[in-house]
Amino acid sequence: KLSFDLRGLDADLIDTMPLFCLSLMKMGAGDLSYLELAEKEAGCSGGLSAGLESNGRYDAPDRLSPFLNISAKALDRKLEEMLDLLTLRLTAPDFDNVKRFEEVVMERRVQLKGGIVPSGSSYASMYAARNLKGNFALGERFNGVSKIRAFNAFADDFANMRPQVVDKFLRIKD
After folding, report:
1. Which conformational region is residue 66 in: left (phi greater than 0), alpha (psi within -120 to 50 degrees), or beta?
2. HSE, side-chain direction, 13 A CA sphere, residue 171
3. CA distance 137 to 147
4. Which among 28, 106, 148, 153 is most buried, taking Cβ atoms within 10 Å?
C-alpha cells in the first residue's frame, strides 16, 4: 500500500480527487489502452485500487490529514511485473482518451446514483457530520453527497468541463 499525503495539494484540486482516483485506475497508461493494461494487471496481480481517506486526531479535530491510498496485491514471483504496471499507471496515465474517459464518468455516475438508496443513511450521517470537524467535512467531500453532486455536474457538462478537469489531473499528478 502506498499513501500520498495530500495536505500540500492546492485547495481547488481537492474536489477533483475522487474523479482522479477513478480515472487513474480505469484509463490506460503509457502506450497501453485500458483493456490491455487491465489484462496485464489480471495476469500479475490480485488487483490495483486507489482511494481517499481523511484522518484526524481527537485532540486536534481541525487538523486535516487527507491521503491518497494506492493498494496492490501480487504473488512474490509477479511482484516486479505488478510494480512496473503500477509505476506506469502513476507516472504515465492516459487522460486523453475522450471516449474512454466519458464511459468511465457515465458508468460511475450510474453506480453512484444506484447507491443512494441502499447507502442513504450513511450519506446522511456524513452530510450531517461535515459541520462538526474539518476531517469530517473532507471525508464527506471525498465519499459523500458532495462527491455525487460533483460527478453529476461533470457528467452533465462533460464536453465543456473535460479540458479543465484534465488540467487539474495533470497538476495533481505532478
Report:
1. beta
2. 16
3. 12
4. 28
Q: Which residues of 61-80 are buried (b: 16+ CB within 10 A; e: fewer)?
A: eeebbbbbebebebeeeeee
Cα radius of gyration (the chain): 17
What is the per-residue DSSP string for 67-81? EEEEEEE--GGGHHH
Q: CA nearest 21: which of 83, 95, 78, 84?
A: 95
Residues 6+ apart with CB under 8 A from 40: 32, 81, 85
Grid cell at residue 67: 491521503
**Whole-number Å distance between alpha carbons of 40 and 144:** 32
| pLDDT one-digit tens code per residue, 102-160 | 999 999 989 888 877 777 778 777 777 777 777 778 888 888 888 888 889 999 999 99
Residue whose C-alpha is closest to residue 147's, from 40, 20, 29: 20
Q: Phi and psi of 113, rounded to 5°?
A: -65, -40
